[in-house]
Amino acid sequence: MSEIKGRNVKPESWQETWEKGETPWDRGASAPGLIELIEDEKFDVGSGPGLVPGCGRGYDVIYFAQRGHDMYGLDVSKTAMKLASEYAERQVGKDSPVLDRMHWLADSFFEFSEETKAIVPKDGFQFAYDCTFLCALHPTMREDWALQYSKLIKQNGFLVTFMFPLEPRTDDPPPFTLSEELYHTLLDPYFELVHINRNPKKSPSRDYKTHIAVWKRK
Q1: Which of 73, 106, 110, 169 is 20 to 30 Å apart from 128, CA to CA?
Q2: What percent of the chain stands above pLDDT 70?
Q3: For the chain, which residues make up each domain, given as ranges?
Q4: Is 123-217 in CATH node 3.30.930.10?
Q5: Mind spelling out the 3-state secondary structure of 50-116?
Q6: What is the distance of C-alpha 82 from the center of its chain?
């Protein structure tokens, strides 16, 4: 078996990255492809609570909360969650009821703390949005990634995946290169692909190959 190239980035490294402000992936807004899916293509993810793992500064959490969803943003970095909370308050206003629909969780996606378990919905999430989260994980963690989503998303709920990168971008990942076939291998045991856009809208400065897909929990 060939050796897997790339770094298995530890939680403390992500924390250090956020403390130093070294976040070149931070695009400052939700991906145009996500907005296209929800607003132009009118895909309905349902009305229940949503989860955004690896949410960083929380743009997607804010986006869905403003559309009425009870949202949970999760990141292993405490600094990221502090910045997300502060950014959300500036964006929607400190007295806005939208703030009450946002919950910031500094925790591991793979094993929730007791504190997190007490906060998240007991019957699971209606949907989750995976945006450049899988590509940050070492390949040895991919099967656990799929299994955890299958546990967190309720039956007939949805997993929205922003598939990136689909072409090699670095000799020292992350981000690790992904493929549509890989997503099928990981998710087909638990989910059914119900929608895919292989040419979603992109920011002019980020004209790279991406797909955005929606998977329904079996």
Answers
A1: 169
A2: 96
A3: 47-122, 123-217
A4: no
A5: EEEECCCCCHHHHHHHHCCCCEEEEECCHHHHHHHHHHHHHHHCCCCHHHHHEEEEECCCCCCCHHH
A6: 17
Give dist(CA 135, CA 121) in Å, integer: 26
1 has a pLDDT exceeding 70: no
Structure tokens at 123: 């019957």
∠ CA 181-187-190, rounded to 5°: 150
Residues linked to residue 103 through DSSP beta bridges, in sequence order: 72
Coil, helix or strand at residue 126: strand
Token pair 């770094």 is found at 7
Residues 47-122, CATH architecture: 3-Layer(aba) Sandwich (3.40)
Fold equal for 47-122 and 123-217:
yes
Q: pLDDT tens across 64-108, in order?
A: 999 999 999 999 999 999 999 999 999 999 999 999 999 999 999
In sequence order, what are the residues at sequence separation of 6 or more whose Cβ sits closer than 8 angstroms to the Cβ of residue 17? 23, 77
d(CA 161, CA 180): 10
The pTM assigned to this predicted structure is 0.93
- pLDDT for 95: 95
> Is 78 exposed, middle or buried (CB count within 10 Å of its CB: 0-12, 13-18, 19+)?
middle
Sheet holding 71-75, edge to edge: 102-106, 71-75, 50-53, 125-131, 153-163, 211-217, 191-197
